C-alpha cells in the first residue's frame, strides 16, 4: 500500500464524527492492507510506531519541525510563520506549501507505507548527541518525497497531534467488522486486547490466524495486562448478596503497581495507565529480586509509604511524592515504600488469569518470601456473613484506610473488566454517593478576584461515554481547591491548551469554556450526590463537587464512565428510599 493511500483514509476519518462511519472506514482500510502492513497501519493510526505501552515518542517539538520546514524549503521565515499563525496547524501549513509549490519536488506519492514506517521508526529511535539533526534530516527527506496530504499527517504524527477522534475501542469494533461485517466479535477481541494491549499485534493475529487464535491469547511477562477493576456497593449486605462468602482485604490507599519479574532478571513496573515507571522505584526493583520466589511472574500490589521511625503508614499525599523523575534516590530514603501484594497473574511461565482467587492467592502466599521487609501480603480474612464484613470495614476505617475490598472466592482475574469478582466498599458518611468519580478536565474559565492570580476561575469536568467515544460534562468546579492545587492545575494545563473545543467533547452552550484543554488531566472528585441536569451533557450533574486528588496514574479513557455514574445515581436513589 502506498503511504498516500493510507493518508487519504486519514483525511476521510478526520471529516466524519460518526463512530459507525469511522468503524467502517477502518475496517475497509484493514481489508486493503497486507499481513505485513496491518500492525504498522494500526500503530500509525495511533500516531506511533510501537504499541502504546512502550511510550516511544518522536521527540520533536513543533518549533523544531517548523524550523526544519523553513530551512529545507529555503522559505522566508517571517512569511512562513505568519501563514502558520493564520492556519493554526503546522501539518496543514506544510501541506499548503507543498501543494502550491509542486514543481519544486520530485514525483510525489511514490513512497509505500512500509518505507515511511521504517523511516519513522528510525527517527523515533534516535537518541543522544546529534540525534535532533538526524531526525530533522529524515523528516525533510520525507517532505520532499511525499504528496501534500501525506505531509499534513506526517507532521501531525511527529509533533504528537494526530488525534483522529477515536479510541482503541473503535479500532476493536473495526476489527470485528473486518471479520464479520458487524460488531459481534468485539467482546472476544476486547478480551484478548485486555490481556495483550497491543493493538497492532491483535490486528496482525486476526489477519493472519483468525479469531480462534485471538481466543487463546496469553499474557507475556514484560507486556502489561489491563488491570481488573472493582464494582461498588453501599453496604456489607449487598456484598454477601452478590458473591456470598468472600475474601475481605483492606483497601490500602497508595498506588497500584503491576510488577513483572522476567527470567532475565529484568523487572518492569507498570502503573494504572500502563506506563512503565520502573525508573522511579530502584528500591522496589531490589526488593523484587530479593523477596520474590519465582523465575518469572506478574503480580499486583498497592504501594504505600511508611515512616520507618513510627512504623506507621503515611497518607496518600506523602506517598505520591515518590512518583517523580528527579531526586529519586533521596526521596526513596525519605519515604520508603511497602508493597501489599494482593494478586498473582502469571507464575513460572504459566498464566494464572483463569485460576480462581483462592488458587491465585495460595500461590501468591508462596511467592512472597519475606513478608516483613518491603513486600508484604495484603491481609485477608474469609468472611461468611455481614457482621464480620462490617467489623472488618470498621477496623479498616479506624486504621485510617478508605474501606475494604471483597473478592469472590471462585472469581478469575478479569483483565480490564469491572465486575463483581471484586467489590469495593468505601466509607462515605457525609455523602449519598458510594464512590468518588474520576473526571477529565476539559477546559476552564478565566478567574475573577483572588483567583486571577492563578488565571483560572472554574474548570469543566466530564466523564467518558464508551458508546460514542466522547466525553460528556458533569460539573464546573470553581471552589474548594487550595492555592497549591490551583497552581498545579494551571501548570499541568499548559501543555494541553488547544485553540478550540476538541470534537470529542459534548458540551452544552452554558458550559462553554474560555480555554479548552486536550484530553490529558484526570482528577478524582468527591460529591454529595448526582442529580438530573439538562445543563450537563451526561444528563447528570455532581452536587457540591470538590477535588479529592489529581490522578496522574490514570489516562483520559480511564475516567469513570457514563454508564457507571448512571448506575451510581440509581444506587443512591435506592439507599435514600431505605
Ligand atoms: P478503579 O475502580 O477504576 O480502579 P480507582 O483507581 O479510583 O478506580 P479505587 O476506587 O480506589 O480505584 O479502588 C480500586 C483500587 O484500590 C485498586 O485499583 C487498587 O489501587 C486499590 N487497592 C487497595 N487495596 C487493594 C486490594 N487489597 N485489592 C485490590 N485493590 C486494592
From TrEMBL:
Pfam families, per database record: DNA_ligase_A_C, DNA_ligase_A_M, DNA_ligase_A_N
E.C. numbers: 6.5.1.1
GO molecular function: ATP binding; DNA binding; DNA ligase (ATP) activity; metal ion binding
Keywords: ATP-binding, Cell cycle, Cell division, DNA damage, DNA recombination, DNA repair, DNA replication, Ligase, Magnesium, Metal-binding, Nucleotide-binding
Annotated ATP-dependent DNA ligase family profile domain residues: 330-465
Active-site residue numbers: 251 (n6-amp-lysine intermediate)
Cofactor: Mg(2+)
Gene3D superfamilies, per database record: DNA ligase, ATP-dependent, N-terminal domain, DNA ligase/mRNA capping enzyme, Nucleic acid-binding proteins
InterPro entries, per database record: ATP-dep_DNA_ligase, DNA_ligae_ATP-dep_bac/arc, DNA_ligase_ATP-dep, DNA_ligase_ATP-dep_C, DNA_ligase_ATP-dep_cent, DNA_ligase_ATP-dep_N, DNA_ligase_N_sf, NA-bd_OB-fold
Catalytic activity reported: ATP + (deoxyribonucleotide)n-3'-hydroxyl + 5'-phospho-(deoxyribonucleotide)m = (deoxyribonucleotide)n+m + AMP + diphosphate
One Gene Ontology term from the biological process aspect of the record: cell division
Residues the record lists as binding ATP: 249, 256, 272, 302, 342, 418, 424
Enzyme class at the top of the EC tree: ligase
HAMAP family: DNA_ligase
UniProt record similarity statement: Belongs to the ATP-dependent DNA ligase family.
Protein function: DNA ligase that seals nicks in double-stranded DNA during DNA replication, DNA recombination and DNA repair.
Protein's name according to its UniProt entry: Probable DNA ligase
Species of origin: Candidatus Roizmanbacteria bacterium RIFOXYA1_FULL_41_12
Gene: lig
